[in-house]
Every structure is written in structure tokens, then in C-alpha cells.
Amino acid sequence: MSAIPPLRYVKMNGLGNEIVVLDLRSEGRPLDAGEVRAVAANPKTAFDQMMVLNAPRTAGTDAFVTIFNTDGSESSACGNGTRCIAWLETERTGRDKLRFETRAGILDVAVESPAAITVDMGEPRFGWADIPLSEPFHDTRAIELQIGPIDDPVLHSPSVANVGNPHVVFWVKKPVADYDLGRFGPLIENHPLFPERVNVTIAHVTSRTSMDIRTWERGAGLTRACGTAACASAVSAMRKSLVDRTVTVNLPGGPLVIEWAPDNHIFMTGPAAFEHEGTLEPQSPSMETEGPALSPRAV
After folding, report:
1. Could you tell me if 229 and 215 are in contact, meaning their C-beta atoms sit under 8 angstroms apart?
2. What mean pLDDT is predicted for residues 250-255?
3. What's the count of helices (H) and strands (E) in the chain, helices before strands?
4. Using one digit for the tens of pLDDT, what is the confidence trace for 73-92?
5. Which residues is 17 bridged to in the sheet?
6. Model confidence over 139-184: pLDDT tens digits?
7. d(CA 130, CA 218)
8. Which residue(s) pair with 98 in the sheet?
9. Mean pLDDT score of the chain, rounded to an integer?
10. Measured between alpha carbons, how far is 111 from 92 in angstroms, rounded to an integer?
């Protein structure tokens, strides 16, 4: 594995979803999976997702963003990470309207403040082949999948959706913390029904305008927040008529406001927080030294 040349990184988080940002728009080099895993292995640069800004591929966009999980695999979308890179770009350019391209498409972002960043997450997909699933289901609001004994399953009849990434959402009536997601999350993530693996969420609807979730992210594990899971859970609850078209989704790291607009686009609003910045040393991708802090205006 080749060593990473000296690169500046920024460590941020979106509601506790740990994000490392690398701006390679002037570097013109990709990262390989081994380099990504090495950065994730260092406690100073540990992350849930790494957001790598590359030179734009489409006119009018600010960057093409490659998103990595801790295991070196790629993700198509990351709502919390998108808010983080949007705030950095606003700090750098002074612009509050931004556009980023990912594997999932082009995302428009409006930055009001570090506490209120809105991402247009695009249109959700609900067809079984779009999730994707390995076998057809006519109604993806509730598919046949259960955890536990056949006559008394712990979890059953989840919804599935694709919001840039595949998601499965199990509906529960008890607090989400009562369920051992760390135990069955990896089993469901790698279930044969999900050929591209899946993000696993437990959801508890508490009112027409509020719900609680907890998520196991494919390639990353338990997380304090997952923006695409919040979106997938919200629109799945809306499809089941459990909540209104705007809902506050409470994650272990804090709340996100999710709106499913009449034009079928999902709008996610939440904060971004700066932690520190530093340098990835060329001797080893897992080595880093702290550098001067950015202006501490993030919440």
C-alpha cells in the first residue's frame, strides 16, 4: 500500500456521526481502501464516513464527493457528511448555496448557519429492484423478514427504501435502546435478501411529528447518527401514514428535521460541528499531527 502524501484533513461531526474531510480537488489522486482503513484505525482520525472532495465532474457543482466507510468500502450518500462539507465550503467561499455531486446524484445544500444546514437528498426509491432486494416484493412498506422465533419474533415486517443507500427499517413499540442492534445489525446487514448489504434501523414513532431511531450502518457499524437512515425512516413512516410530511427524527446524537415535499424530494435540516484539523503524515497513513484550528463557529 502506498503512503498518503502530506494532506490536510478536517475532523467534524454531524450529530455525533464522525466525519473526516479530505479536499483533493487540487491533488488529482484517488485513495485506495487500505489507505482509508489506516486513517480510520487511528483514534485521532477515526470516522464513520470519510468525505473526499474531488474536482467537479459536472458544470455548476462545487466538487465530486467520494464517500468511504470505515472498512474502505464506498457509500453513495451521507447526509451528515454533506452538511459538514457544505459548512466548510461556506466558510471558504462565503456562499450559502452549494451543489455537490455523489454517486447518488447532485445534492443542493442551503447553509443558514452551522446549526441549520438543509440538504436536498433527492427522491426516495421504493421498488424492490431499486433497493435492491434479491427477490421481488410488491409492497415494500412491509416485507417478509423477521428476527427471532417464528411464533414470537423480536422484529418483523420491516419497510425498505433507497435514499442514496439501501435501508431496512423495523418498527417497534418500545424505546429503540431496548433492542440489541449491535448483535443483530451485522446479521441483517449481510442477509442474502440484500445483495449490496443494507443499513439497519430500528424506529419508534412517538407522535405525528416525532420519531426515534437507532441505526447500524453497513461498513461502519453502530452510529450516533445517520442522515440517510433518518430520511429513509421518515418517508417510510409517511408511506405507512404514521407521521405527517414533516417530522423530527431523534437519533442518539440529536434531532434532524425531515420534510418530504410535494415534488417528491426529501429535505433534511440539521447541524454540523467542527472538531479539529491536522495533517496526514507521509510516513504512515495512520500518523497525524494536529494543526491550527479553524474558526470555531460550528456548534
Report:
1. yes
2. 97
3. 4, 20
4. 999 999 999 999 999 999 99
5. 14
6. 999 999 999 888 889 999 999 999 999 999 999 999 999 999 999 9
7. 17
8. 109
9. 91
10. 13
- List, as one string, the DSSP characters of 7-62: EEEEEEEETTEEEEEEE-TTT--PPPHHHHHHHHHSTTT--SEEEEEE--SSTT-S
56 and 64 in contact (C-beta within 8 Å)? yes
User: Which among 273, 235, 274 has a CA at the least distance from the CA of 254?
Assistant: 273
**Given phi > 0 = left and psi -120 to 50 = alpha, else beta, which region is 164?**
left
Q: Which of 74-78, 248-252, 255-259 has the lowest mean pLDDT?
A: 74-78
Q: CA-CA distance, 209 to 157, in Å (whole number)?
A: 23
Q: What angle do CA 100, 106, 112 make, to 5 degrees?
A: 55
- Domains detected in the chain: 7-122+272-290 (3.10.310.10), 146-264 (3.10.310.10)
Pull the grid cell for residue 17: 456521526
C-alpha cell at position 127: 421498488
Question: Which residues are tagged catalytic?
Answer: 78, 226
Contact assessment for residue 211 and residue 250, using Cβ atoms and an 8 Å cutoff:
yes
pLDDT of 5 reads 59
Amino acid at the residue 218: R
pTM reported for the whole predicted model = 0.89
Q: What is the DSSP secondary-structure string of 80-105? A: HHHHHHHHHHHHHH--SEEEEEETTE
